[in-house]
Amino acid sequence: MRPIRVLMFGWEFPPFISGGLGTACYGIVQGLLKNNIDVTFVVPSMKGLKSNNICKVIDANEISISDYELKKRLLAKNIFIRNISPYIINLPKRFSINEEQLEFFRSSGILAFTGNYGENLMREVFYYSIIGRILGENKDFDIIHCHDWLSYPAGIAAKQVSGKPLVVHIHATEFDRSGENINHDVYNIEKEGFEKADKIVAVSYYTKNILINRYGIFPDKIKVVHNAVSKETHIQRFGIKKPLKEKIVLFLGRVTMQKGPEYFIQAASLVLKKMKNVRFVMAGSGDMLTRMISYQAFLKMSRNFHFTGFLQDVDVERMYAVSDLFVMPSVSEPFGIAAFEALLFDVPVIISKQSGVSEVLPEAVTVDFWDVYKLADTIVDLLKHEKKAKSVALACKKRLENICWELVGQKLSMIYSELIGG
Amino acid sequence: MVGVCFYFQIHQPFRLRENYSFFDIGVNHFYEDAEKNAMICRKVSQKSYLPANRIILELIRRFEGKFRVAFSISGVALEQFELYMPEVISSFQELAKTGCVEFLCETYYHSLAFLFSKKEFKEQVLLHKKKIEQLFGKKPVTFRNTELIYSNELASFIEKMGFKTIIAEGADQILGWRSPNFLYRPINSYKINLLLKNYRLSDDIAFRFSNREWSEWPLTAEKYSVWLHSLAGQAEIINLFMDYETFGEHHWEDTGIFNFLFKLPEEILKHPDFIFVTPSEVEKYFTPVSKIDAPYYISWADLERDLTAWMGNPIQNEALRFVYSLEKDLNKLKDPELYHVWRKLQTSDHFYYMCTKWFSDGDVHKYFNPYKSPFDAYIIYTNVLNDLYETIKEKLALKRKKDVRKKISV
Predict the structure, then answer these.
(1) Using CB atoms within 10 A of its CB, is residue B236 exposed (0-12), middle (13-18) or buried (19+)?
(2) Out of A34, A382, B102, B282, which could bridge B278 as a Cys pair, Cβ 3.0 to 4.6 Å?
(3) What is B194-241 written as a DSSP string?
(4) Which residues of B are tagged catalytic?
(5) How far is A343 from chain B (nearest CA, A)?
(6) Which chain A residues are closer than 8 Å to B25 by Cβ?
(7) CA–CA separation, B11 vs B78, rounded Å?
(8) In whole angstroms, what is the distance from residue A135 CA to residue A123 CA?
(9) What radius of gyration do chain B's Cα atoms show?
(10) Rounded distance, CA A100 to CA A94, Å?
(11) Is the peptide bond before A15 cis (omega within 30 degrees of 0)?
(12) Does residue B358 sit at the A interface (CB-CB below 8 Å)?
């Protein structure tokens, strides 16, 4: 049997990554390849970086429309000039193309993407849907798979022109990112993606529930496929000399509302009232960082609490390697691969109950993110009882043995087969 | 008679490495960015200190003692000159030999120590006194505190230490309706004289000289002297205090600042009533007209003329708390090297970099800030302090062991 061919739309792909999405996509592609699935991965921009060549990568920046002799056809249909409502998706009107941009498009034949998450994000999402349409008409494939709302319009467009089934993967919903103050444009795109999809893949039951309760999606349409973690590491824990005698408690992630950094700081201040030989590290950057630095200073913790800023790959591993405890107090965490990464370095983890990863790590210590007293008690408990901490790490690590991207790929390929066969 | 009193401030901090990260704590004890410090020291010396010294020396010789000025050079600046630009030291020594230049005393480390530890403050003042005497051969008798931070309490303390004159900002908070152009005396003092900076006339040179938006631009020596001369009859002593970098660094040579300096004494002395004096000489000509009450701290920084450039926001307060909390342990160790490292970290600039007031004074703060943001400055600074703290703890543990051994052998 010839392999299933997937046209996959993402927003970032290694080596260009800015968050967890790129890493997860990379793992998923690797898993699919191991299951004999043929993947073509589309990104808005590779930023001039070469892909890792594990699969075909299409850089939307390089798609010349005339190559596909589509320019004429699309323009003849006047798709760009009219209100976009007859178009693929009801994007907000202000993101439609104006005459000037159309002229640029006509002369160059290329839609320029930055691939960032900046102010032109909505317009790029719209451009990306045009790319989706072009590829949908011109590529040979069996199924479409897209990751998070940024690529949903592209996936839907590809489905509309090709008639092939669409799988949408949800890594994080707007409610995870923004709490209750959601961006309604984003919400609408997400909802439309869920509705137009033939199957939805959620990274956890936690996320599935959000889809059911907040987006009104029929439960049977949602399949849960938990993430995995790549087990190659560049350094060994044993190779790292720990320069500080104190125990190190680590927070690693974007310093944003979603990750609950202030609860980590509050818990740290409570822990320091009970024990002194401990240091806390907040690794990562984000819009709340300066506020968190001031908060740490306000609580007079400069002797025991450190900030590293955004860490590059080897430094991330180094950070895990010197840590004694990993804390992820996320307010809303669809999954949380970071907990897996910590476990690879034998670091015991405390994770919030509001995180998807806790579903596959039943032995991990969980607390409600808002319960800083409980969190502090748990930190003290695990730091003071090394045996207990070790057993938590071991038990969780045991779970990790059965978690790998290949299995994720297997589950996804079964979903594909069902959709194609059915 | 009207005295014109020039005092120039020279200070360069030991800036810290911008990449001192969490991973360096406990491993790396090199805190300073030697390359950058050397580069800045050389650059500022070439652009400002050396050419300005040459002009002043020439002026002193030309006016045969009628032109007189004062300098205050922080101990950390002197150390950097010794390390990277020894010719700056000899250039100042040459000026000292003329007898027309007074060197003031300040805290060796350009620190805020008075606000946190009187003992430490006194120590640093004595260190600086010794250094000035050793380099320039004269015991300083005038005191200026870091950034002209001043209060009644400081004045009394300094008087008790034996100084004759103290310098402060002519801040509106303490002067009220009064003019800075007279000699004053701190409210609780009987001997010490208080000189207050005329900030309008000082800032005309220090800040506004090259500003083309300023209605008085371009400022010439003639024009400026007319302003001074117009004060005759209503002023006794005009105190013009500013950073020495005003000449050649803050205002580059092409703004005409050196020409201005070169012509100024001649223009000022055209008025027969005008003389130049240094801070300690003021009492020869004038007597204090009134007492000045400064119950709260003032300084010469920012529009507020208070302490908010260095303390007040959480990161500054925490950094200061941390650094001064180490005093107790260091006093137990009495390790001169560690003292030196610790005291260099007390230099006020470290806290200035952490200032988050980004309004009218923000530009000035930004200009001097080697870090990307005040928060970066805080993180680097506390990382360094943590490493120092680790070193202190280690040495204390060693010392305890030794002490125990001594006791046993006795």
Answers:
(1) middle
(2) B102
(3) EEEE-HHHHHHHHTSTT-TTSTTPSP-HHHHHHHHHTTBTTBSEEEEE
(4) 147
(5) 21
(6) 243-244, 306
(7) 8
(8) 19
(9) 22
(10) 14
(11) yes
(12) no
Best residue in A250, A251, A293 for a mutation probing chain B (most B CBs within 10 Å): A293
**Which residue of B26, B318, B379 is in closest CB contact with A243?**
B26
The one-letter amino acid at A86: P
Q: What is the CA radius of gyration of chain A?
A: 23
Q: Which of B136, B140, B148, B105 is nearest to B239 (CA)?
A: B148
What type of residue is A71? K
When pLDDT is cut at 50, 70 and 90, the band that residue A67 belongs to is very low
Task: Give B-chain residues touching A235 at CB under 8 angstroms.
Answer: none
- Cβ–Cβ of A308/B21 closer than 8 Å? yes
> For residues B72 and B106, what is the distance between their CA atoms, to the nearest angstrom?
7
CB A45 within 8 Å of CB A13: no
- CB neighbour list of residue A10: distance below 8 Å, 6 or more residues apart: A21, A22, A25, A41, A42, A43, A146, A147, A148, A151
Q: In whole angstroms, give the CA distance from residue A420 to residue A412.
A: 12
Name the amino acid, one letter, at B284: K
- pLDDT digit string (tens) for B206-231? 999 999 999 999 999 999 999 999 99
Q: Cα separation of B166 and B184, whole Å?
A: 10
Contact A131, A150 (CB under 8 A): no
- Smallest CA–CA distance, residue A236 to chain B, in Å, is 17
pLDDT at residue B407 above 90? Answer: no
Which chain B residue is nearest to residue A289, measuring alpha carbons?
B375
Q: Is A107 exposed, middle or buried (0-12, 13-18, 19+ CB in 10 A)?
A: exposed
Q: Which residues of A touch B390 (CB under 8 A)?
A: 244
pTM assigned to the model: 0.88
Shortest CB distance from A302 goes to which of B21, B27, B318? B318
Nearest beta carbon to residue B378 from set A297, A301, A315: A297
Residue pLDDT, tens place only, A368-405: 999 999 999 999 999 999 999 999 999 999 999 989 99
Angle between helices A313-322 and A337-344 (to 10 degrees): 60
Residue of chain A minimizing CA distance to B354: A294
Strands annotated E in A96-177 = 143-147, 166-170
Query: What amino acid occupies position A416?
Result: Y
Contact B354, B319 (CB under 8 A): yes
Q: How far is A230 from chain B (nearest CA, A)?
A: 25
Residues of B in contact with A306 (CB under 8 A): 22, 25, 379, 382-383, 386
Cβ pair A302:B389 closer than 8 A: no
ipTM given for this complex = 0.90
Quote the minimal CA–CA distance from A224 to chain B in Å: 39
